[in-house]
Amino acid sequence: MMKMRGLAASVMLAGSILVGCAGDSGSDRITLYSPETPELTKELAQKFEDVSDQKVDVHYAGTNILVNKMMAEKDNPQGDVWYGGGGILSFEEAIDKGIIGVYEPDASKDWDVVENGIKVKHQDGHYVGVEVFVMGFAYNTELVTEEEAPKTWDDLLDPKWEGKIQFSNPAASGTSTLMVLSQMMEQGEEEGWAYFEELVEQANSLPDSGSAPTTAVAKGEAHIGIGFDFMAYEQKANGETIDFIVPDKTPILTNPAAIVDNAPNEEGGQEFIDFLLSKEAQQILADWYHIPIDPEVESKTPLTLDNIKENALDLDIDWVNENYDSVRNEWKEKFQ
Q: Where is the signal peptide (predicted)?
């Protein structure tokens, strides 16, 4: 069995922005859809161009926007490959919507579907994990000591954090949709909704962007921010007074890539997915403080699968698929 070791959540934008290499789109080019950090995806695209004879156009937007775009283009697909979406849940939803095809790279064919309690690829080849994301708590080290920082999800309800927490809006952010779904699975729906009734009262803001709470913590606008691990470690590397807590029993999941169904440049899209699992691409992800799927690539993040796998919450993917839309709609009814 493969042993993995040591990434965004999505920033929601009003539309898709071309951040890749310039040039007219054509069948000899690869169109990449991604909600991940524009600078990161541009670096990945440039490296692929350096090691191949194809060009890449990167279209950047939030996960939900990209999914809606692929739905609108379903009868005439414009994208070739989709990378990233705050983990596997949006990809699982996309399978039911019929917007992603089937492709399994040679590099992942010997992987089990679930390894170390984490689903690393789709059982029918609809997506493959590229890296590992950990949901947890960023905290401002000038405002909160490591000792007093919350260690569990229940710790967030301590009265001392009233007005000092930020998490993104689950109606807009895939990051927080994952948070809500995971708590519903862990606590049951009745207790889960009761939990969020309290947590909302603790928050000073619910921005739409999945990375905004971590940025707010770095700026001192919040003491605690809920988000993914790499968001905090990137900020810390830039000199911000911020650190990250991996809470007990939290979502830990792979962030995948998939071929767009009936992609105009399907072969090119497949080559790009192969590239994402290569040492070159895995090293780029590692240098951006992501936990790479390749166990031989060492990341700048202090987290590895070995030191976090005991914290992984068991995610019932079938339950998620059945309740994804209804939970988001109920959130809107209750809190917006």
A: 1-22
